[in-house]
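Quick start: what a row looks like.
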Amino acid sequence: MQRGTFQLMKSVNKSIILNKIRTAEPISRAQIAKTTKLTPPTVSSIVKELIEQGLVVERDSGQSMGGRKPTMLQINHTAFYIIGVDAGPDNIDVIIADLSGATLTHHSSQLQASLTNEEFLAQLKISIHAIIDDAPINGNEILGIGVAMHGVVDVETGTSLISPNLGLTNIPIKAELEKEFNVIIKVENDARAMALGEAWFGGHGEIDNMVAVNLGRGVGAGIVVAGKLYHGAQDIAGEIGHMTIDMNGKDCECGNRGCLQTFATGAAISTRAADRLQASESSLEHEPVFKLTGESVYALAKAGNKMYEEVLVETGVYIGVGLTNLIHLVNPKKVVLGGGVMNSAEFLLPSIQKTINQRALTTDAKQTEVVVTSLGEDATLLGAVSLLLVELFEVG
């Protein structure tokens, strides 16, 4: 879909009606008018446009309240599709999803080391073209492209300001993709995109205040307030990976010492496990024949090796300290944890919850719900998709 066409679809009243249908479908025109306070003629006129545009369809009549049975409305989830991109630091993953978040197709490619901005953008374009070419849909059915990018993102310009794990700065993602594909482009920090995806697809109900934390090669968070992402004054809200946990701790890539990221990433876990192994008097007896990784630490702990289990429990304490600070600052209703590190949730989560219970200020804060994402590895990709859904459905 062309960028101009998308803007013609947008209006305050259209968004109000679309969102009401999305959240309450199936719903009648009369019910929409009653709950939105829009006049029946306004609702009928806009619904007619939405049906003509293919976004809304009529279904079997609803229950009669004494007169003629009302015609019910629902979103036509396959009218348009959205491309969601999880860009870096190791791979570029791309999906095409419908308006309900159902994935039509998936494409993944590995990023090479030591890329320039131009090389990164070239691979990004190639990956998107590849999934479009493979998908059994018309290009005009693509509503837009959402990109979840690690590091610091200027969401207004769609520029990746700092991409630490790629060693790149000032990548003009939005500008370059708009020129290449001529559709709406939204670019967001990956952890914040994940938080928005959780709000849309995570099955958390009517929670309007939550935090999602992504723990993988880095640590980041997205804060959802009143159903919208909170960015802060300079777009760095949620960078809890660089919250200081130990002033005398190890050097972090940001230049500070003892950041949460130096304790809670996969690499940090494997490093601490290797240090513990080296210090062990029985290191020769227990030394693995392979290089330790976050995944292998979990496998060894699951196999009953107490030393590696202790490393993961200790990691849960560090994460719990960081989350307690976050709870005191933001006071979310729920904290959702995702990313590769949380594959070790059976060891981490009890330790996280115990630490919060010990350290949180009030009884209610101690009981803040902390869960692992149900979206699995697709959480960030669905977050990228939701960036466009917000544009279509939300008001303002």
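That is the whole record. DSSP finds 15 helices and 16 strands in the chain. The chain has three domains: 3-75, 81-200+385-393, 204-373.
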